[in-house]
């Protein structure tokens, strides 16, 4: 059978198909891009037994994080008085988190002071009660209780797995992060934090209390 379509009809069909394709391409471009972890920069690592902390070439501002302390009082990073903070996102149900928590406790005992603080931020939905129980069971003495039951802070910080730990300077800039558990009281990590705190306080013209440990 002969094709009875006229040249004008063919042109109309082509134009219509192009318009439909263009519409769907425009719609696709309006959708937000998938969120993916940023590629790891080629930066030095401070390696200790159990893991490493990768430093950023260029520190970046930390998004606003707000949470409550063990007494239910609202807090942000600004409440830590310009100290260098090791922010650890964790939960009592996370096995690697539970394993590394005593090392964070020892780090706080060794170095906690006016220049540095470990900030263990739990995302446990049950809140303070389960954290207190865990602290008693594991003999955690130096760490405070901080809770974000909504988990929104983990999302804001781009956390893709637990535990995730960020080293943050006194201005609120992320200097580096570690995804996964580590031995935070290792000599290498303690040396890194001492250098970071010393640099931060030198820039601010003040002398920090670096704790009593070697």
Question: Could you describe the 3D structure shown?
Answer:
The chain is α+β, with helices and mostly antiparallel strands and 214 residues long. It has a single domain (45-204), classed as Glutaredoxin (3-Layer(aba) Sandwich). It contains 5 helices and 9 strands; from the N terminus they run αβββββαβαβαββα. It has a 9-stranded mixed β-sheet, with helices on one face.
Features of the shown structure:
nine-stranded mixed sheet, single chain, alpha+beta, 214 residues, globular, disordered C terminus, 23% strand, 5 helices, Glutaredoxin
In short:
By secondary structure, this protein is of the alpha+beta class. The chain is 35% helix and 23% strand.
Roughly what percent helix? 25-40%
Shape: globular
**Regions with pLDDT < 50 over 5+ consecutive residues?**
17-51, 205-214
Structural class: alpha+beta
Radius of gyration: 25 Å
Proportion of residues in extended strands: 15-25%
Report the span from N to C terminus.
94 Å
Tell me the name of the CATH homologous superfamily: Glutaredoxin
Order of helices and strands: HEEEEEHEHEHEEH
Tally of contiguous helical segments = 5
If you consult CATH, what is the topology? Glutaredoxin
Number of strands: 9
Kindly provide the name of the CATH class. Answer: Alpha Beta
Describe the main β-sheet briefly.
9 strands, mixed
Mean of pLDDT: 79
The CATH architecture category equals 3-Layer(aba) Sandwich
**Total count of domains:** 1
How are the strands ordered across the major sheet?
A: 1-2-9-8-5-6-7-3-4
